[in-house]
Design goal:
- By secondary structure, the chain is of the alpha/beta class.
- It has a single domain, classed as UDP N-Acetylglucosamine Acyltransferase, domain 1.
- Helices cover 17% and strands 30% of the residues.
- Strand 19 and strand 20 (195-199) form a beta hairpin.
- The radius of gyration is 18 Å and the shape is globular.
């Protein structure tokens, strides 16, 4: 109680979460999205789920979609989007995200204990072809390759995770990074394009 009095905005956030979460769970159930127990929502996410596609979320998920929910201030609500009937987004347990987007044309798989910082974008598609003639004739025929984010990964704010990437377990992606190729486990990677800066020593 003393801590809450020192940070009164946390009381407002908590009450908002308690009010919104049941409605958010009702909406996800209507869209046939599996959500594990103890999920919490600060504001409503934007869900664009194509009929026949799959979105599954493990237990103890945290979705922060309102500006007041995080001092980093999300630009927009969390977006979960499957762009065709074969697409899938599979999210493990103890996941958290603030704003940002997860967009699957094929497959995005996220492990347990993954934290996605404010305003990140994870997308397994280029959205549109690179070749101009191909883009003119077939504007939505873009290249798409699955993404895998393994357990215990932390992705820093404003990062971009592109198609075909695997981020190894325990790794950290620095804020503002553009991840264009796979990152091994237990490292810190950052930059555009993201490169490994150093290994993480979990013995310390």
């Amino acid at each position: 109680m003393v801590n809450a009095l020192k940070s009164p905005w946390k009381i407002t956030n908590y009450l908002h979460m308690r009010f919104i979460t049941p409605y958010a769970l009702f909406l996800t159930a209507i869209k046939r999205i599996k959500v594990g127990p103890d999920a919490r929502f600060w504001g409503l996410p934007i869900i664009q789920k194509t009929h026949g596609s799959q979105i599954s979320i493990g237990h103890t998920a945290r979705f922060r979609s309102t500006k007041r929910s995080n001092p980093l201030v999300p630009y927009h609500p969390v977006v979960l989007s499957t762009r065709n009937s074969n697409a899938k987004i599979i999210i493990g347990n103890n996941f958290s995200i603030t704003g940002g987007s997860i967009i699957a044309e094929t497959s995005i798989t996220i492990g347990d204990y993954v934290t996605v910082g404010a305003n990140c974008r994870i997308m397994d598609t280029d959205f549109h072809p690179i070749d101009a003639e191909h883009r003119r004739l077939h504007p939505n025929d873009a290249k798409t390759v699955p993404i895998v984010i393994q357990d215990n990964v932390f992705i820093g704010t404003d990062s971009l995770i592109l198609k075909g990437v695997t981020i190894g377990a325990g790794s950290v992606i620095g804020a503002g990074s553009v991840v264009r190729s796979s990152i091994p486990p237990n490292v810190i990677a950052a930059g555009n394009p993201a490169v490994v800066i150093r290994s993480l020593n979990h013995a310390n």
